[in-house]
Task: inverse folding
């Protein structure tokens, strides 16, 4: 009889021992760095200046007043506002078209997925060439049509749109693959039942069956695209360095320059917190609001 | 194998087999393809070089219930999909309600279909599921819009009419209290009835059912059979019911179409199919326990000998034939074929005795009171007017009675 509680304790110890590697790696690799970043955001920590002083919310009040940060925030919102809807819509369109087709499915899937597996930094040079104002194929095509093409990446009017186009190119293929996975999970019989039930057009079958049953996939794709596009950094860093005149500076790029160019790590950590807050807000939106309106199997 | 010479295939003793594989649908009883109903004319389909449908013709008259019976993989579901328009055949025509719909979209064929998996829309409530065929036809695209649709002119009245129709259809099927549930919250039998309701809510020109009972448990299957027959009577549409379960086909259908390897072997009433099959495949497919087959030989003058013994049968065929006797048609007869008892099953009101006649396994359906011991030899005769003979090619040959049967 006395053995029972002892054995239960032994089991508990065993369980903790088994989870220990995960607990340690979570603490060391995720929890502590995050807490360190949070703590740093309330200091004036600069590389080479020791010791850092606790300055409370000063970093955040500086952020609010900083026109450069406000511009970078607005740029990010515009970039996300362009990339997320277009790449989700295109991803869905590609997935539906490839699903509906009978020939060349593997080929088209590979073509659209290529941007996802290719290195953005390497592909950026290709984009730089494509969008070059004088020697770029895009502008020479426009010239042959009698249109004077803008300097895509070096004019502050077009730089964000150009970057957003590259972002769409990067994300649409990824979204397409996710949508294709979602589409295969929809039983074919449902679409057949819909056509027998009088859904004459492809659009009405999409409305009746495909779109509602794709709900969970769409929700996931939207969330992941928002988060991926907020994190835009490599194209900005390689192609424009935030320019011209900060017209393409985004949150992560500002964070990078503050932290690694000006070495103001405390200020940079404050920007990180803002970034983190936005991502958490999006996740909350997903679980609290959208999740309720989606049908799961 | 030497083919039976003589005068080729013959029809059975009582009438003739109702119709063979390539028979003209016009010859089916009570049918005229132009009067309505459902008909398939010479449908052929091959997928990946594999023939699925071989020149299939079939007519289901208005108000008739035809069961399409066959083993799995024989093409019966494909035939149904061709009729519904979900799949197109390589050649042949489909008519529904007297209209040629061969090239028409499924939505324009006015067919209703119950899928084997029911294919209910999982995100819609029971009421919305049942209403789909009506919302698709009575409301236009604008009126179907989620929020805006309610404000479109005429939408209110049309929706109210649909609601009334849904209630009218759901009532007799016992679904009234389930209208707000989602399919995921229903039992298998309830889902099946929702699928049925969705199919019958608009008066369909043809009603197709693809093994609708195969996902139900045995007890529910028997009660649902009756429900389906009742629904069919109420709707009165030409009904084609696909099944691999012969007891469903025998109990429910006005006529049975037996299909095998993409061909319709015979279309006839259940009784004719059972008593008067056109070939060995139909005979052995129908009936449970299976019909007993004995190798037999037709002599010079056509007299049939089985297991080395004379039988009361004579046939125009010559050479090896197959004698087929239903388990209930055996009689104990001291002059009959010697049969060794191997096993006996008591089944309450009757019993099944497994025996061997010259090495061939046979089953005797007997009164429950019969006393047999394993290893004992019984002598079995058969009711000659009920025995069937098949030629070496599996086709039916005539069996005439040589001498009066002894009871």
Result:
């Amino acid at each position: 009889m006395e053995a029972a509680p002892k054995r239960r304790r032994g089991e508990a110890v065993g369980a903790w021992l088994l989870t220990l590697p995960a607990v340690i790696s979570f603490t060391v690799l995720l929890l502590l760095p995050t807490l360190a970043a949070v703590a740093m955001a309330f200091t004036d920590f600069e590389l080479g200046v020791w010791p850092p002083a606790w300055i409370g919310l000063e970093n955040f009040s500086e952020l609010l007043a900083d026109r450069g940060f406000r511009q970078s925030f607005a740029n990010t919102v515009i970039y996300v506002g362009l990339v997320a809807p277009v790449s989700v819509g295109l991803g869905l369109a590609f997935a539906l078209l490839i699903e509906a087709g009978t020939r060349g499915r593997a080929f088209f899937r590979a073509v659209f997925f290529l941007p996802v597996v290719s290195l953005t930094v390497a592909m950026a040079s290709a984009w730089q060439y494509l969008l070059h104002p004088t020697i770029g194929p895009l502008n020479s095509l426009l010239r042959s049509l009698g249109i004077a093409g803008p300097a895509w990446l070096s004019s502050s009017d077009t730089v964000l749109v150009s970057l957003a186009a590259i972002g769409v190119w990067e994300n649409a293929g990824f979204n397409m693959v996710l949508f294709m996975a979602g589409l295969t999970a929809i039983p074919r019989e449902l679409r057949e039942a819909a056509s027998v039930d009088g859904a004459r057009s492809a659009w009405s079958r999409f409305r009746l069956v495909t779109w509602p049953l794709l709900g969970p996939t769409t929700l996931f794709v939207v969330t992941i695209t928002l988060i991926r596009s907020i994190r835009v950094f490599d194209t900005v860093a390689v192609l424009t360095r935030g320019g011209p005149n900060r017209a393409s500076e985004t949150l992560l790029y500002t964070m990078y320059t503050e932290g690694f160019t000006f070495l103001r790590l405390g200020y940079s950590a404050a920007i990180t917190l803002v970034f983190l807050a936005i991502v958490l807000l999006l996740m909350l939106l997903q679980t609290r609001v959208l999740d309720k309106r989606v049908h799961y199997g | 194998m030497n083919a039976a010479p003589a005068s080729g295939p013959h029809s059975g003793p009582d009438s003739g087999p109702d119709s063979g594989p390539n028979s003209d649908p016009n010859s089916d009883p009570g049918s005229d393809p132009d009067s309505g109903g459902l008909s398939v004319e010479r449908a052929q389909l091959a997928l990946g070089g594999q023939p699925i449908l071989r020149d299939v013709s079939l007519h289901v008259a208005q108000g008739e219930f035809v069961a399409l019976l066959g083993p799995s993989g024989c093409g019966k579901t494909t035939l149904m999909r061709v009729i519904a328009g979900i799949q197109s055949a390589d050649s042949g025509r489909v008519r529904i309600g007297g209209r040629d719909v061969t090239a028409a979209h499924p939505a324009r064929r006015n067919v209703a279909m119950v899928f084997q998996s029911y294919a209910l829309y999982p995100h819609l409530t029971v009421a919305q599921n049942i209403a789909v065929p009506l919302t698709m036809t009575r409301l236009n695209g604008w009126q179907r819009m989620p929020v805006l649709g309610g404000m479109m002119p005429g939408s209110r009245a049309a929706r109210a009419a649909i609601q009334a129709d849904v209630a009218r259809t759901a009532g007799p099927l016992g679904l009234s209290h389930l209208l707000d549930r989602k399919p995921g919250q229903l039992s298998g039998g309830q889902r099946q009835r929702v699928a049925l309701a969705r199919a019958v809510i608009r008066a369909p020109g043809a009603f197709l059912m693809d093994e609708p009972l195969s996902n139900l448990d045995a007890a529910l299957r028997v009660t649902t059979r009756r429900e389906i027959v009742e629904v069919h009577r109420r709707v009165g549409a030409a009904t084609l019911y696909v099944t691999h379960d012969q007891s469903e086909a025998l109990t429910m259908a006005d006529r049975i179409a037996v299909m095998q390897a993409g061909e319709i072997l015979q279309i006839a009433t259940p009784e004719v199919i059972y008593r008067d099959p056109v070939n060995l495949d139909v005979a052995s497919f129908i009936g449970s326990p299976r019909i007993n087959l004995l190798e037999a030989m037709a002599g010079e003058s056509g007299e049939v000998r089985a297991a080395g013994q004379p039988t009361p049968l004579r046939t125009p065929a010559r050479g090896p034939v197959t004698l087929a006797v239903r388990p209930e048609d055996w009689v104990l007869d001291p002059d009959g074929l010697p049969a060794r008892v191997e096993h006996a099953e008591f089944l309450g009101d009757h019993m099944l005795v497994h025996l061997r006649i010259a090495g061939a396994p046979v089953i005797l359906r007997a009164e429950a009171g019969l006393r047999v011991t394993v290893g004992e030899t019984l002598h079995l005769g058969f009711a000659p007017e009920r025995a069937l003979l098949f030629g070496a090619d599996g086709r039916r040959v005539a069996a005439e009675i040589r001498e009066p049967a002894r009871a």
Notes: Chain A has two domains: 1-39, 41-293. The mean pLDDT of chain A is 85. The interface with chain B takes residues 187, 189-190, 192-200, 203-204, 207-209, 212-213, 215, 295, 297 of chain A (CB under 8 Å). Chain A has 13 helices and no strands.
